[in-house]
Amino acid sequence: MLLFSILTAAIAPGVALLTYLYLKDRYDSEPIHLVLKLFLTGMLIVVPIMVIQRGIELFLGSHPLLFSFGLSGGVEEVVKWFVLYHIIYNHTEFDEPYDGIVYAASISLGFATIENILYAVYFPSTFTTLMLRALLPVSGHALFGIMMGYYFGKAKFAPRRSARRLLAVSLLLPVGLHGLYDWIITSEISEIAWGIVPFMAFLWIWGLVKIGRANARSPFRIVGREEGVKL
Q: Is the separation of the CB atoms in 114 and 159 below 8 Å?
């Protein structure tokens, strides 16, 4: 019974955040089965990511900056981006900019959920600990996914020359933000570690702005207006 409670507390934040982002799609919601597929894919990529991280660590060591921007931010975001691109970029259901946010967040939160489950099972976890993880690592992955998905969605509907630049931003921005997050939270200097609070607040504000802008670019928003005029 205790294990069930711990697992529920570990899974709930990722599911809740994904539900929130899914419901923020104001004009053309994505198929549930496709969102779940990407969420489960995010869970499955944990194993190859861990293998890659271990290989790099054995070869190059684990310097704090290498860990933050390479092993954690770099490897995790590159693999998520690679999977996202090959599964969804040319999919017919990817038909508005906000879809990029939904799909990227699905993969990110699937990964974060497995990460949270592993932490809860292998380390003594209290309700307070799991709540802190919901506010920091899990929501962090959601926010990195929002940034990735926002520029992914812009790239999808941009001219080819601009699309390449936006795709690069959709990869490099989450890598940088994820690396900075890990560098702050693992710092042994308390003044730096406490910086995670304003950093996360800034990311949430920025993320909500991106959500609004992505919805505003939906072609279905214009169609809805035209139909409203006809009525």
A: no
